[in-house]
């Protein structure tokens, strides 16, 4: 079969790389792709938001399966456009993708169906929000309601920081329309982990757990980012964690979406935290996570394209996994998640002896250069976290650049608790 992946980041590189190895796949296309994706797929110069051109391309190139990577085209209804053209697409409808597109919607859904999450209130007025924040105290979490590329969350450790975050969002439109409403949440203490599931209606196929690292710098310091690294599996969590999360969170939310006539098809990503009261929801996403997808799919031995197509056809499926641990380290542009320079050469970094997933790269004058905040993810594999860490960090020892940085502690939480 021919497969089309829509997107241009590290998640899409991981999907294209996996599909290129699947026995069921003849050809992989990616729109628009990036410099690394071009090694594993035919890149097509169509933007993720150009619904008409994408649908026409799928029709004219005998595409049997389309997978939508980023959240923006999902929130704009790209999956609906493919479905209307009777093309098989793996991604939720515009209405169903509201579980990511509106944090307020997700919180209201969880409250209605008793799905464990942090206590919260929503605000559109800064004065009202500030009264609530002062009453609650800190630590406290401020979230932009809409999509903000993974940067719309501030975990404030003091009231001053919380008030500043709320003011930035509500008064100064830090994330435009996405922060016209904010969710103010109770702070949850515990171990965070990511649980992605392939879903079609009430059929659910769980993927391996991963742990993301959101803060920009070592020891979880600095601002939140889209993710600075991840690893899988997360073996130091209690054995029953996944089963409990499936029973108390994943299945109930899938059933809730059905009851609300928002049947979900695609990847349901649950960002969870293991508290003293059990797992609770931090956030839901309506697509593959980034950078978790890179480390999770790196371990998947099953034919992903066949799995997704079977699921779309209403069949159940199962997955087979490598026993190895994969640690992925994001190499980001200096200044990220704030301002940063693009078009910095990457040849010296790409010489490192490890596998790179390209997140923000492009070709310029026959040279691969940076084209985003998160630029590459270096993936190392080993028998356990320590071995995978050793592999990837030894390879990155040769990376010295004033234009890029990376965290040196991806996976350390597992070592401390093992």
Automatic annotation (TrEMBL):
Domain (ATP-grasp): residue spans on this chain: 107-313
Taxonomy, superkingdom: Bacteria
Entry keywords, A to Z: ATP-binding, Ligase, Manganese, Metal-binding, Nucleotide-binding, Purine biosynthesis
EC class: ligase
EC annotation from Swiss-Prot or TrEMBL: 6.3.4.13
Family annotation (InterPro entries): ATP-grasp, ATP_grasp_subdomain_1, PreATP-grasp_dom_sf, PRibGlycinamid_synth_ATP-grasp, PRibGlycinamide_synth, PRibGlycinamide_synth_C-dom, PRibGlycinamide_synth_C_sf, PRibGlycinamide_synth_CS
Catalysed reactions, as listed in the record: 5-phospho-beta-D-ribosylamine + glycine + ATP = N(1)-(5-phospho-beta-D-ribosyl)glycinamide + ADP + phosphate + H(+)
SMART domains: GARS_A, GARS_C
HAMAP family noted in UniProt: GARS
Family named by the database record: Belongs to the GARS family.
Protein name: Phosphoribosylamine--glycine ligase
């Amino acid at each position: 079969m021919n497969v089309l992946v829509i997107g241009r980041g590290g998640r899409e590189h991981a999907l294209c790389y996996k599909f290129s190895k699947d026995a069921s796949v003849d050809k992989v296309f990616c729109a628009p792709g990036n410099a690394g994706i071009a090694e594993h797929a035919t890149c097509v110069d169509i933007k993720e938001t150009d619904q008409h051109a994408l649908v026409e391309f799928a029709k004219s190139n005998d595409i049997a399966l389309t997978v939508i990577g980023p959240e923006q085209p999902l929130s704009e209804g790209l999956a609906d456009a493919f479905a209307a053209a009777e093309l098989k697409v793996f991604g939720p409808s515009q209405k169903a993708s509201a579980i990511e597109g509106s944090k307020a919607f997700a919180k209201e859904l969880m409250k209605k169906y008793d799905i464990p999450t942090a206590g919260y209130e929503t605000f559109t007025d800064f004065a009202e929000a500030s009264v609530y924040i002062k009453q609650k105290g800190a630590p406290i979490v401020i979230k932009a309601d809409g999509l903000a590329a993974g940067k719309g969350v501030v975990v404030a450790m003091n009231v001053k920081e919380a008030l500043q975050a709320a003011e930035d969002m509500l008064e100064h439109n830090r994330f435009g329309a996405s922060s016209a409403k904010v969710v103010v949440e109770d702070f949850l203490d515990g171990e965070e982990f990511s649980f992605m599931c392939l879903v079609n209606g009430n059929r659910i196929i769980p993927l391996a757990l991963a742990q993301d690292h959101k803060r920009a710098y070592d020891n979880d310091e600095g601002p939140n980012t889209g993710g600075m690294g991840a690893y899988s599996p997360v073996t130091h969590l209690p054995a029953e964690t996944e089963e409990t999360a499936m029973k108390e969170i994943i299945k109930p939310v899938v059933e809730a979406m059905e009851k609300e006539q928002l049947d979900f098809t695609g990847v349901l990503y649950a960002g969870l935290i293991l508290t003293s009261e059990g797992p609770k929801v931090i956030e839901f996403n309506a697509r593959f996570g980034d950078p978790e997808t890179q480390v999770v799919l790196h371990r998947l031995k099953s034919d992903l394209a066949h799995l997704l197509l079977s699921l779309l056809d209403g069949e159940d499926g199962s997955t087979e996994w490598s026993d190895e641990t994969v640690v992925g380290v994001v190499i980001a542009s200096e200044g990220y998640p704030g301002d940063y320079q693009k078009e910095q050469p990457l040849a010296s970094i790409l010489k490192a002896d490890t596998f790179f997933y390209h997140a923000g790269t492009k070709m310029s004058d026959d040279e691969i250069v940076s084209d985003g905040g998160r630029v590459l993810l270096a993936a190392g594999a080993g028998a356990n976290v320590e071995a995978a860490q050793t592999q990837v960090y030894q390879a990155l020892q040769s990376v010295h650049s004033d234009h890029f940085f990376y965290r040196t502690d991806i996976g350390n939480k597992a070592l401390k608790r093992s």
